[in-house]
Each structure stands twice: as C-alpha cells, then as structure tokens.
Specification:
EC number: 3.1.31.1
Structural class: alpha+beta
Strand content: 15-25%
Number of helices: 5
CATH architecture: Beta Barrel
Largest sheet: 5 strands, mixed, barrel
GO molecular function: 3' overhang single-stranded DNA endodeoxyribonuclease activity; nucleic acid binding
Radius of gyration: 30 Å
Mean pLDDT: 73
Distance between the termini: 96 Å
CATH class: Mainly Beta
Number of strands: 8
Enzyme class: hydrolase
CATH topology: OB fold (Dihydrolipoamide Acetyltransferase, E2P)
Shape: elongated
Keywords: Endonuclease, Hydrolase, Nuclease
Helix content: 25-40%
Protein name: Micrococcal nuclease
Length: 258
C-alpha cells in the first residue's frame, strides 16, 4: 500500500514537472512571435503614413548638413540669375546666392552681358512664385557689404545655386573664403564647360560672359531642364545631397546621367 502511494506520488510529481517544462518552452516560442507582430504592425503603420502623405521639404525632417535650413519663404521677385527677393516675416529681403555669378542684366554701370538674359529667364522659370528654403554658410557671413542676405536656395528638393552652374547659366564664384559646397560647384562647372552647356557653348559666349549680349535674347528652351543637377560622375553624389532629396521625396525619379 505504501509502495503504491509512493509510486503514484512520484508519477504526479513527474507529470507536473513535464507540464511546467512544456509551458516554459511554449512561452519562449510565443514571445518572439508576439514581439515580431508588434514590430511588423509598427513598420506597417510607418509605411502607411509615408505612402499616403505628401512628403514635405521641412527643416524638421532633414539631417546634417540640412538642419540649418530656414523657411519656407515665398519668392517675391527674381532680380537676376544670382539675386532674388523673398518675403521674410512680412518684409522683402534681397538674397544673394552663394557660390555663383551670372552675367549682368540690371547693373546700370554695365551693358547686358552675354547670356545674362537667359540666366535671368531660367531663374524666373525656376523660382518665381515658389516657396524656397534658405541655407546660410558661416564661412561667408550672414550679409554682404550691400546688406543682402547670403544663402544657398533650395527649391523643389534641388539646390538651385548648383542647378544654375550645372545647366550653364552661371560661373562658380568664390568670394574671399572657400564655402561649404565649393567642391561640388566646381565639379558642376567642369561638367558644363566640358560639355559646352549654356554660356560655355561656342554658339553663345564660349565662356566669355564679360562681352555685351548680342545674339542672345533671353530665350529659354520650353521644356524645363531636369531638376537633378548632376550625373553620377560628379562629386555631389558622395556628399549626401542627392540622398537627402530622395529621402525627402521618394516619388521623385532616380537621378540619371546627363
């Protein structure tokens, strides 16, 4: 009798241990699944937001080196290819674009220079009535000697200063101190010069924009040039600017070679 009691007790104890072990194993197997389900749900929610909302070009969404963008500001007027006026806090401010120089069209001391009308027309086509962001560069100071703000101008996910050089509407221009994007701007000028783009063409100015405008009339091709400013042979692709544009607006087409 006692022996049977001991055997029954041992069996019950063994069964309890087996149940406990099975419970632990099942718990370990279910926990990662639950966590994974949470992660999948989280990712789905994020993707849903990104898919159904329009990406906004906001400084809050940018990462270094874009955390210093200011705006958006409406462009009130394009003065010429390298100078614009924007509305800031209800007041018009003149902005001189860093790193570029376009042929003169409004300087009363000079005649209209070769390809100046084309540069101004391109700037108007790209900027007038648009919302832009300004990026300052501490190496250049906040304002020039004429009181104009000094800035890089971003429009439609494009660095406009760079676009003007790449499309042959502007020279790269370094004033006194090197600036943040100088290597990229110089690479863009090399490309435009090598491929006879815009003012570099022998049919326009052959690079000499100091001469007065003659055969140029301010005509700009009716089909807008691509907003992607560079091809994959230029240094900008290593700087993160293009990657930033893609992250800001994933619906944009991928950059293509010019």
């Amino acid at each position: 009798m006692d022996r049977r009691f001991l055997l029954a007790g041992g069996a019950i104890l063994l069964f309890s241990c087996l149940c406990l072990l099975v419970g632990i194993v099942i718990g370990l197997m279910l926990t990662p699944t639950s966590e994974q389900a949470k992660q999948v749900t989280s990712r789905t929610a994020v993707v849903g937001v990104a898919t159904h909302s329009t990406p906004s070009f906001s400084p809050m969404q940018t990462s270094t080196p874009f955390k210093n963008l200011e705006g958006p500001y409406k462009v009130a007027r394009v003065v010429d290819g390298d100078t614009i006026r924007v509305i800031i806090n209800g007041e018009e401010e003149t902005v001189r674009l860093i790193g570029i120089d376009t042929p003169e069209t409004v300087d009363p001391r000079k005649p209209v220079e070769c390809f100046g009308r084309e540069a101004s027309a391109a700037a108007k086509r790209m900027l007038e009535g648009k919302q832009v962001y300004l990026e300052e560069d501490p190496t250049q100071g906040k304002r020039d000697r004429y009181g104009r703000l000094l800035a890089y101008v971003w429009v439609d996910h494009t660095l406009f200063n760079l676009w003007m050089i790449r499309q042959g509407y502007a020279h790269e221009y370094t004033y006194d101190e090197p600036y943040k994007y100088r290597d990229e701007f110089r690479a863009a000028e090399r490309y435009a010069r090598t491929h006879d783009v815009g003012l570099w063409s022998p049919h326009t100015c052959n690079g000499d924009t100091d001469r007065p405008a003659s055969g140029t009339s301010g005509h700009v091709a009716p089909t807008p040039a691509p907003l992607w400013p560079l091809d994959d042979h230029l240094a900008l692709y290593g700087s993160g600017l293009v990657g930033h544009a893609l992250r800001s607006s994933p619906n944009l087409p991928s950059p293509v070679s010019a």
